[in-house]
Please model this.
Amino acid sequence: MGKLVTQTEFAELIGVSKQAVHKVLKRGDRLSKSVVKTADGLRIDASEGVLEWFLNGDSSHDRGGHMVTAVGTPRVDGIMALSESNAMRAHYAVLIKQLKFEQAAKRLMPAEKYQREAAEIARTTRDRMLNVPYDVIGFQTRALKNMAKEMGISELDPKLEGAVNGCADAIRRELKVAITKALRDIAAWASQGDATA
Model:
């Protein structure tokens, strides 16, 4: 036996008025297997009742009284009311039509093309980022030579030049490590996004 509901809850569940359910119960011919007498009065087995209701009768006769409104109908223990279900189905039908229109209008990009382009952009960005330390060292070397020239020094002392080059190499290595770590963090973050999509 499924969840037992009141006449009002059952009416909301199937999208008809309470009076329509009451008339059917009074006749006793349509919900014979799903009606249960309890200490609190008549109850209807929700799942069995829905099947009986739609399999055993002409629903055009059940629309008398006040019809339950569409979206916003209370749910009976998580079971969606028929009117709410119909509204949801209509909503998704509109979304599917919109998607088909956008596909026909070529407004959507195929996932494979997006993935290829994203991978190419990621590769190019990675390569440029990894070249930054070399660009910085090249700039630093040129700046040092220009500064020496402005000071009237034609040639740097070999010891000083060695120390400057050693310092520049250490900066390059540190920058490369920091950039590589940042790129790995970005890749890990992006792969988490792919896993949840």
Residues 37 and 111 are 57 Å apart (CA to CA). Confidence is low (pLDDT under 50) at residues 62-73. The first strand starts at residue 4 and ends at 5. The chain has six helices and three strands.
